[in-house]
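Work package 3, deliverable 3.1, input record:
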Amino acid sequence: MRYSVQDGSKNPTFRNLHCGNQMAFQSIENTAKNIVGTVQDYSLFAWRGATNLFRPPIYWPDFLIQADIIGVGSASIVLLSGFFTGGVLALQSAATLSQFGATSVTGRFVSTSMIRELGPVLTGIMVSGRNASSMASELGSMVVTEQIDAMRALGVDPMRKLVTPRIFACVTMLFFLTIVANFFGILGGAAVTVFMNHQNGTQYFSMAYEYLRLGDIMQGLIKPIFSGFIIASIGCFYGLRTTGGTEGVGRSTIKAVVVSSVLIIFVDFLLTQIMLTVVP
Amino acid sequence: MTASAISADPNRSPAAGPEPIVEFRNVSISFPGNSVLDDVSFKVGPNESRVLLGPAGVGKSVLLKLANGLLCPDSGAIHLFGHEISQMPEKELFSLRTRTGFVFQEGALFDSLTVRDNIAYQLIQEEVADDEIDVRVRESLRFVGLEQTFSLYPGSLSGGMRRRVAIARALIHTPDLLLYDSPTGGLDPVTSTTIIELIVKQRDVYRTPSILVTHRLQDAFTMCSHRFEPAEDRMVPLPKGQYDVNTTFLMLSEGRLIFDGTLHELVNSDNPLVREFIE
């Protein structure tokens, strides 16, 4: 049987191709709708989570518990990752700088890199791996075992009781954890400079301190505020959207870690661009 | 238990108050690709216990969650204590929900809290004094016969004990409405009877209106054919031919309410779906 081009609807090959295209477009349309819907839901969720702090009831004991879990619990990993990152920076930079006879600026290189970029970003990603996952899995388990519904049935708002304390604890503690990471990063750089590269420690610390400007410190301390908000809000958001039983809890945990890590780096890029414009 | 609540007249209708505690008017709800409830209407009067029957997956639990605003319907109106809740903001619903007690299917106890803190959850949020909390928790635990579990964590309780703690949690605030979501689901017959005995005790001692969701017909019949005897502290059967008229039945099938009536009407129903379920 022959088909004309105009009569394509009768051609099985053309029809299959047409159906395939239609399904592909449908799939793209659904995916786009899902993404827009998720962004909209997240925006409303984050707004409610943040503004709840300014309206009673405020669960201060829950804030303290979360601050302990996030802050004290993450201190060791942040401290170690900061120390070794500073050490690696000193090793790498000294190797390159020695070619130009500029090993004396190792301290400046390490401190500026740690305070402006690596401290906030690495701390954000380390805390995200530890806490966004734990928040998503904890709240996800509560959803699938109806504990969230039970909380609502008992007249308690899960947003206020579970989400708001986590967001503010994470923002507060990430700020301090970043300072800890920066401090131990510079210390790690110093250890490598003195004990492995056999350079002068006083010169290292002098260079690390003298060339720091207010803009560098501001960049380093503003970024963790955003990262902390992203970690807790994304962790809670995906936790409370869990469906599909224990398998769903696993999916929520993965999404929370992946999305929060990528968002931290993306927001870091945006903030760096803005800060370099505002405080060059 | 007063004699007025027990009837030998099979056609006697349950006592109906001036204003229903819960009223569903043409309520429908669907989830993506799945219509769950379709045009459901019924009432729960004061002192009335309604047993919601139906096979698994017909929307019984969804209906119960709609009754205290945990879910919002797509269409129709739901009245709880005289308030229209289907469009009510969550913030306003919290105060209404504190007047209801909800017993979830698996208990839904908070794993990280002790039995004492689980039962007292609402009281702790209201900042009630610790001494008073302890007294009220012990009283609630005594009601369900689990005083020894005061300091234990839910993880160390059996399935039946968790349900009884969930009942104690629902009762501590002396609610105006009780919602039981399959409280005997997955339990052995002996434990199921213990749970039903507690529900009958609650019905006959406190006279709180309730909706009980179950797919177990024997639980429903036990509720109708027994009363709680305070002197003996146990459930006893009513004389032959008598049943509790304040306990009535609803039946769901494929999202539609196919039966609303008394035990007598249920067992004499001509509806083939009702007959199939009963038989």
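Residues 12-51 of chain A form the longest helix (40 residues).
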